[in-house]
Amino acid sequence: MFGSGEGDYDSAGELAYGLMFHGFDYPDETGESQLHARFWRPTMIDGCIRFVRPDDKEHTNRKFVREMNAKRFGKDMLRSVLDEATELGV
Asked: Considering the entire predicted model, what is its pTM?
């Protein structure tokens, strides 16, 4: 259980993990008609990794993926994956 005893990394200091995927910024969340991938550089300090919030622009980097409109959800909006892939040319 976390914090219940001495762990292997409790005295390790700072360990950097390099650039890692953090998440996607979708149009329905950002108000932009674009999909972005978000990346960050996590570090573990004495066994603890503190995750940054998605809106933390100082500690995350965004990369444009493609143009994309916000998706509306509802029973009448269901489509097959095959139909969407065909539409995207995949």
From this structure: 0.67
